[in-house]
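comment on this one:
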Amino acid sequence: MAPVGALAMPRPQDEHERHEQEEHQRRAYDQEYRDYHNWDSREDRAYRQWLAERNHDYVDYEHLRAEDQRDYWKWRHKQEKRERHEEHEEHEHN
């Protein structure tokens, strides 16, 4: 059995490293689709795109109303399907 300290994440050495660790640890739950999403830089870009398309000022996802969170995940799942379709089309035409 490994000592407990061996399983712990190392303490970040600087602000950048702290941000990287938080990014890897942050997850959001999508109630409608009943799945978790890692909140990484890709998800953050998608979220900011969703806000921009709706002319909303930036608000941290956790502070969105539950209705807006559901709308975001509906949009996000549609985006993922579109992205996969575009990648498939691109692959077939190359």
